[in-house]
Design brief:
The chain is an alpha/beta fold. It has nine helices and eight strands. Strands 1-2-4-3-5-6-7-8 form an eight-stranded mixed sheet, with helices on both faces. Helix 7 (235-246) links the parallel strand 7 (221-226) and strand 8.
Length: 292
């Protein structure tokens, strides 16, 4: 009991630091201390490119065996495009492998080593690798979903809207059955020196906004946002939703009262699940858009 209380205290401190630094250098590593891990099989550090950060981990439900196939969820973490790692988000895999999903957590190159669009290109490259190889890990490529939080939601949204990213790998948006974005900055204007350097010059800003690429060919989307989010404005999700609706697409925006930027992903941790039904909303969405 003492150890658990201590772990939870550490988590609260880390989450507080994460909020105060706008998801920069501090990750959710403490979230894994008290996590309820299962018997998932893990294949770590599979290279999808040449960089040390172009690697991914695959989590396979323990009951999967033989020729059995399972749906696949690729999740991109946030961190202001300059921090975070796949190792800090094992709790995502814990949640969804228990529900029968194969979970893929990719790393990607980050600022200042690279600038936009390099991290979005990495996201597309990772997804292409998954589509082309996940069958060897019991994955059902006809049942593939994309999700992300914060900066990770931004990257995932870009490759789910701008067809050019996947086209470079001879793939189309059709490979994505559905996208879930948690607290994503889909249509923002850089307003800090590091962001201006990361995404600039200003004439390139339109290329970083997922809402600018909606043309009616996008996969179904579930956009989740906390109404107490002081880091990413709700208007980002609203603009993406409105763009999709104008083109006749399938989109739903879900907002949670009293939930901030970190708590949308934090609610996927077992001891914070009471804060918001994020897991349930995601699973209902996946079932809704699952191919027949």
């Amino acid at each position: 009991m003492i150890c658990l209380r201590k772990s939870l205290t550490i988590l609260v401190l880390v989450i507080g630091g994460l909020v105060n630094t706008a998801c920069t250098k501090i990750g959710l590593f403490a979230a894994n201390v008290p996590a309820h891990f299962n018997d998932a099989k893990i294949v770590r550090d599979i290279a999808y490119g040449q960089s040390a950060l172009q690697k991914l981990d695959i989590y396979i439900p323990g009951h999967i065996d033989g020729d059995e196939k399972a749906p696949v969820l690729v999740f991109f973490y946030g961190g202001r495009w300059s921090g975070g790692s796949k190792a800090q988000y094992k709790f995502i895999a814990d949640v969804f492998t228990k529900e029968g999903y194969i979970v893929v957590l990719p790393d990607y190159r980050q600022y200042p080593d690279v600038k936009f669009p390099a991290f979005a290109q990495d996201a597309a490259r990772a997804l292409a690798w998954v589509y082309q190889n996940i069958q060897g890990y019991h994955g059902d490529v006809e049942n593939l979903y994309l999700a992300g939080h914060s900066a990770g939601a931004h990257l995932a949204a870009l490759i789910a809207t701008n067809q050019d990213y996947l086209a470079k790998h001879s793939l189309s948006l059709d490979i994505i059955n559905g996208f879930v974005g948690l607290s994503g900055p889909y249509a923002f204007v850089p307003d800090a020196p590091d962001l201006e350097d990361m995404f600039g010059p200003p004439e390139r800003y339109p290329l970083m906004r997922a809402s600018n690429f909606v043309d009616g060919t996008q996969p179904p989307m579930l956009l989740i946002h906390g109404l107490d989010d002081e880091i990413v404005a709700l208007k980002n999700a609203e603009k993406l939703r409105d763009a999709i609706r104008r083109e006749g697409g399938d989109v739903r925006l879900v907002t949670y009262d009293g939930i901030d930027h970190v708590e949308t992903v934090g609610a996927l941790m077992w001891f914070w699940s009471y804060k918001a039904p994020v897991k349930d909303d995601m699973l209902v969405f996946f079932r809704k858009v699952r191919p027949e």
